[in-house]
User: What shape does this take?
Amino acid sequence: MIERGVSLSEKTTYKFGGIAEYYLELTKENEDQLAKCRELTNDIYILGNGSNIAFSDRGYPGMIIKAANEQIKLLTGTTLEVNSGSSMPDIARFCYQKGLTGAEFMIGIPGTIGGGVSMNAGAYGSTIDDILSSVFSYNFVTSTEREVIKDKLKFGYRTVEGLDGDYIYKVHLTLELSDKRLIQEKQKEYLAHRKETQPSGLYNAGSVFKNPKGYYVGELVERAGLKGYRLGTVSISNKHGNFFVADKMAKSNDLYNLVQYVKNIIYKKFTIKLEEEIKFVGDFGKED
Assistant: This one.
C-alpha cells in the first residue's frame, strides 16, 4: 500500500530526515504497486536498508520505495536467487551454512543486496560484481520487467552503470564450494576487524567518503587533525576518521555541512578531492 506523509527519520541508520510525500514498503505480495508509482510522481527514490543515505530534514517531495522483499534460496549447487530486501550479513550466513565461499565480505555490511548492487558495495578486497551473475528489475521508464546479465553492466569503485530508472527486485549470485570451517574463520576475522576499527552502537552510515586512489580517508582525516571534530549535532568518530556519528535527534544538515567542511580541509592540506560514498537525498544547504 502506498502511504502519504511518512517520516523518514526511522528509515535510515542515521535516524534523521523529514517527511516523504509518498512511501511504499515493497514486499513480494504488493509488487503490483510498482506500476502505480509513476502515476503519482516521476520523482522516485529506491531505498535499501538506509545504511548509506542521509535524507534532508526538509523531507522528500516524491516517492520513496523501500525494498522489503526478503528471501534467499539455492537454485543450483552454487547459484543463489536473492530478493533485493535480503540483508548482506544474512546472505553471508546462508552461504556459510551451504558451504559456499565468495560472500564472506558481506558479513559486516549493514545493507541489503539491492542497495549493495546499486553501489557495488564491497570490503576486504571483494565487491558485489565478483559474485553477481544477473539482475532482475522493473524499469520505471519503460514500465517493463527485465533481466540484465552482469556483462551488460559497467562496474566501478562503489558505482554501477546500466540500471538507471530500475527497481531491483531480485539477483542471482554465483559462488564456489568450499570448506565451511575456512568460510567461518574468514567471517570471524572480518567481524573482529570491524569491531576493532569502526564505531558501533551509534548513529552512523558506514564510510562517508570513497577512498581516493592510493590513500585511505581515515588516515587523511587523522593527519589533518580532524578526528573527533564536531559540527552541531554530528561529529567525526575518534575511532575511525571516515565514520561520522550523529547525536540522538540530530540534524541531517549538520552532517551535510560537516562533510563539506572536511572536503575543503583535505583539499587545502593535501590537494586531494574527496568524493562522498554516502548519498544526500533531498534539499540540503543553508538553513531556512
User: Anything to note?
Assistant: The domain at 199-281 is CATH 3.90.78.10 (Uridine Diphospho-n-acetylenolpyruvylglucosamine Reductase; domain 1). Residues 252-270 form the longest helix (19 residues). The two ends are 33 Å apart (CA to CA).
